[in-house]
């Protein structure tokens, strides 16, 4: 029949745009909460409530799915990887009880942010069960990245960080002054995504996004190791995915852009250029063994020594995580000491060899799968692959997994989905290399 729609059909057609908008809002909020952008905001009770609610929801679905698969003897590789991640906070809390005599329950509560890794598993479930298509998940993921970086930039541009100096929302360093406790790595992921669009999909507008996110990172992030690792990540993509002619072409263009930016900074912000030269010069002293009077570099030596000593005493399971509510946290026991500051040494201190290995297994598997999928390069997969590469490098000098594990968990889930769902379909000729994901974000 080709007559007019029934009143019910008309009502459903009216509701569809609203439902789509609600779904987009829900998934975007899902990612922003996973990224922990506003986790330290002093009036963050609403954010914390939403975050805990999100953990409760994804934990319920993930554990229920795990139990159902186990009962049917149909456990997937992803679920096998999931089990040690679920157990890790329990082991860490027990170690903190044994080493520091912290109450077991407090040890578990202080690691609540760890369970955001289940958002990755939930995203994979949503994809394989058809709750959302890859192209829409990609769209909402990128949207959340843009919103997060815009929100962080808003605070830096319009609100002096020293306004919050009595809170955990900011920290003070001699090199950078007052800085917000934001996950600045999100700006790097936007840079990586923009370059993948510019080089892989030849979208000229992506260069503008790259420059804006790079400007945020240079002006506000000011993390020398992350800046170095961002360059390394982009170079790996450049070397692996561009033809020889385009390599020379883009190398020439990038060289010109860098020269122009350096000239502009020298003319208008020589202090900022000198600041970065000083930062990298002081950081190089760690490799050369030279003396430096930079406070942050010297404090890393001290924190590294504390981490090594603690690791040598409890090498297999680590020392666990201590809450700031228990005798002042790690600072109460060691003075100035934050495991996240010293990268892989911090992970070894907190989780030991076995726990640290758990965190690195997804990186090893993702690297192996990326080699197996050589020649298959949808934008969503490429973005998550190189985002994960950056996180891997970043974890060498900053244990970002201790506070911000949501991004890497999601990227691993996407790579897993492609390797075991989309890639087999590509090999069978059911989908092309340029699948609908390449047109998802316009």
Mind explaining what this structure looks like?
With 442 residues, the protein is mainly alpha-helical. It is 71% helix and 2% strand. It has 16 helices and two strands. The protein has helices spanning 7-35, 45-71, 77-100, 104-109, 118-128, 134-158, 185-200, 205-221, 224-241, 244-268, 270-288, 295-313, 329-334, 344-372, 379-397, 406-427, and strands at 170-173, 177-180. The protein has a two-stranded antiparallel ribbon. A hairpin with a 3-residue loop joins strand 1 (170-173) and strand 2 (177-180). Helix 15 packs antiparallel against helix 16 (406-427). The longest helix has 29 residues, at 7-35. It is globular and about 60 Å long. It starts with 6 loop residues before the first helix and ends in a 15-residue tail after the last helix. The model is unreliable at 285-293 and 436-442 (pLDDT under 50).
Summarize model confidence as the mean pLDDT. 87
Alpha plus pi helix count: 16
Instruction: Give a quick account of the main beta sheet: strands, pairing sense, barrel closure.
Output: 2 strands, antiparallel
Assign an overall shape.
globular
Distance between the termini: 36 Å
Strand order of the largest sheet: 1-2
User: What structural class do helix, strand and pairing data support?
Assistant: mainly alpha
Question: How much of the polypeptide forms β-strand, as a percent range?
Answer: under 5%
DSSP strand count: 2
Report Rg. Answer: 23 Å
| Unreliable residue stretches | 285-293, 436-442
Can you give the helix content as a percent range?
over 70%
What is the H-and-E element order? HHHHHHEEHHHHHHHHHH
């Amino acid at each position: 029949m080709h007559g007019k729609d029934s009143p019910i059909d008309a009502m459903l057609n009216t509701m569809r745009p609203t439902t789509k908008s609600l779904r987009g809002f829900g998934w975007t909020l899902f990612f922003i909460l996973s990224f922990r952008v506003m986790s330290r905001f002093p009036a963050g009770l609403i954010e914390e409530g939403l975050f805990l609610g999100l953990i409760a929801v994804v934990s319920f679905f993930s554990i229920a799915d795990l139990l159902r698969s186990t009962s049917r003897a149909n456990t997937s590789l992803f679920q096998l990887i999931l089990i040690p991640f679920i157990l890790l906070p329990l082991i860490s809390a027990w170690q903190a009880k044994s080493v520091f005599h912290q109450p077991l329950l407090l040890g578990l509560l202080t690691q609540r942010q760890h369970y955001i890794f289940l958002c990755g598993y939930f995203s994979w479930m949503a994809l394989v069960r058809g709750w959302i298509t890859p192209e829409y998940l990609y769209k909402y993921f990128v949207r959340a990245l843009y919103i997060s970086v815009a929100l962080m930039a808003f605070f830096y541009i319009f609100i002096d960080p020293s306004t919050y100096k009595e809170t955990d929302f900011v920290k003070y360093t001699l090199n950078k002054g007052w800085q917000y406790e934001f996950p600045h790595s999100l700006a790097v992921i936007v840079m990586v995504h923009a370059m993948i669009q510019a080089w892989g999909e030849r979208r000229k507008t992506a260069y503008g996004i790259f420059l804006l996110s790079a400007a945020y990172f240079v002006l506000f992030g000011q993390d020398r190791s992350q800046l170095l690792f961002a360059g390394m990540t982009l170079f790996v993509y450049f070397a692996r995915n561009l033809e020889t002619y385009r390599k020379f072409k883009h190398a020439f263009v990038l060289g010109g852009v860098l020269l122009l930016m350096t000239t502009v900074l020298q003319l208008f912000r020589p202090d900022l250029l000198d600041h970065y030269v000083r930062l990298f010069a002081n950081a190089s002293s760690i490799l050369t063994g030279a003396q430096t009077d930079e406070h942050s570099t010297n404090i890393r030596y001290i924190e590294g020594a504390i981490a090594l000593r603690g690791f040598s005493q409890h090498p297999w399971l680590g020392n666990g995580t201590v809450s700031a509510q228990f005798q002042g946290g790690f600072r109460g026991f060691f003075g100035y000491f934050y495991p996240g500051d010293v990268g892989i040494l911090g992970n070894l201190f907190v989780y030991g060899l076995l726990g640290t290995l758990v965190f690195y297994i997804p990186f090893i598997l993702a690297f192996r799968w990326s080699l197996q999928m050589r020649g298959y390069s949808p934008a969503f997969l490429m973005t998550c692959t190189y985002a994960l590469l950056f996180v891997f490098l970043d974890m060498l000098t900053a244990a970002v997994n201790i506070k911000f594990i949501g991004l890497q968990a999601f990227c691993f889930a996407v790579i897993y989905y492609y390797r075991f769902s989309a890639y087999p379909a590509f090999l069978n000729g059911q989908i092309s290399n340029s699948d609908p994901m390449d047109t998802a974000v316009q």
